[in-house]
Each structure stands twice: as structure tokens, then as C-alpha cells.
Amino acid sequence: MSNIEYNKFADQFDLSGRMAIVTGAGQGMGESHARALAGCGAAVAVVDINEEQANSVAEAIRSDGGSAKAFVCDITDYDQVKATVDGAVKALGDLTIMVNNVGWNVSHAFIDSTPESWQRLIALNYTGMLNNVHCALPHLVKQNYGKIVNISSDGARVGAKGEAVYDGLKAGVSTFMKSMVREHARHNITFNTVCPGVTNTPLLQDIMKEEVGKDIIARMVKAVPMRRPAEPYEVSGAVVFLSSAASDFVQGQNISASGGLTMVG
User: Fold this and answer.
1) Highest mean predicted confidence (pLDDT) among 33-42, 163-172, 190-199
2) What is the bridge-based pairing of β-strands 19-23 and 146-151?
3) 227 lies in a domain?
4) Which among 6, 78, 126, 166 is annotated as catalytic?
5) Taking the model in full, what pTM does it have?
6) 166 part of a folded domain
7) Catalytic residue at 166?
8) CA dihedral in degrees (16, 52, 87, 151; nearest 10)?
9) What is the total count of domains within the chain?
10) Residue 90: is its pLDDT beyond 60?
């Protein structure tokens, strides 16, 4: 056995000296992940397309005694992503953690969807993630260590009515991460995915504005053994774990944070 000091195991979750980039961090789950990582000691680049929201979250982190800087970025634009990653490294130190949190969906039957809606879903849920990972990898490979955490969906594991394109893309994200393990595990970079279920976010509130969305959410909440949606911080625990040294031997996994909505072996 290794000679790890088990009486200091909590130190495995100490992110002091680490720098994390969190996309879509201006509200909802992204804000929660950013603040949780900062609370564990990481310097956080708060990335969002909404400048006011990004600045607000960065200021909240600093007010709590943490280190953070806001960056405005459209993750679907590769050049913007590269500039943001390089800017975060310059401002906050070597990149250690990349949390790909941005996601977007509108619930409707696939037969009623349009090619235009598919392209927006692809851009926000898949292309943006590719941009982020591609720009982060050179930094992580160079230092021979890093953590990439993608936020997917439990629907990507089992499918959900009204989410066909979104769930397909998020399933693709999980498979992409497994391929990255094959290519870069030798560089001590871990690639894992967190799969939330029904979570109380602004996106959930938007979905519920439509009748089909209300029906989907009501049925999903009824199927959750805990009989309620998650709060964002209840998902952030999995993100912190996968961003910490405690998960250094965890690779290519999909970790559900869904209150038992799906219990996939």
C-alpha cells in the first residue's frame, strides 16, 4: 500500500494552488460549481456570455475571501475560448481544472423540431465543449496533470421525452470523454462526467414555461425517489470530488446526481 497519511485525507479535497475554469458560471449550477471550487481553495475563472452575471459571481467569490476573475466568452467561438483560457492562465495561474457546464435545451417532440434548432443545440452542448477541451489540453499536457469535468444529464443515459437531440448530444459528450481517457490518461489528466437529474436552475424554470415542459418536469420529479428536484449545490459535490486529488484514479465515469431518478449499473 502507499504511505498516504489517512489522518490527513481531507487534504485530498484542498484545491489551494489550483486554477479552475468554469463555463456558464454566471448563474444556476455553474455559479454553484464555481463557488464550491473557490470555497475549497481554487482560483476560479468565472466564464459566461453574460458579463453582468459573470462579474456578480466573481465578486461574490472575492467577498467570501476567494480568488476569482470574470471572463465574457461565447464558447461556440473557438477564438474567444482560446483567448479566455490564455487570459485566465495569465491572470490566475496554471490551469488545473476545466468544468464544462454550459448546456441548453428546449423541450419539444423531435418531429416538431427544426434543423435550425438542432444546430443551436449542437453548438451549445457539443461544439462549445470541444472548443473548451481543445484549448485546455495543451496546458494540462504540458504540466502532466489536470481535471476535465463535463456536465451532462441523466437523460443522456436513458433518454427522455422531449429531449431527443439534447440527450443524444450529451451522450456523445460522455463517449468523447472516454476517448480522451484513451489519449491522455498517460498525462495524468482525468476526464469524467456528472449527470444531474431534475435540478432547480433557471433552465428548469424556462422549460416549465411551456406546457410540454411542465408535464415532463412533473413526471420526472414524480419518478425521483427523493420526490424533489436537486438544488445546484447538491450537484457541486460531485464536481468538487472529480476536480480534487481524491479522484486521481477515477477515469471516464458518468456520475449521476439525480436523487435516484436513474440508477444505471
Assistant:
1) 33-42
2) unpaired
3) no
4) 166
5) 0.90
6) yes
7) yes
8) 60
9) 1
10) yes
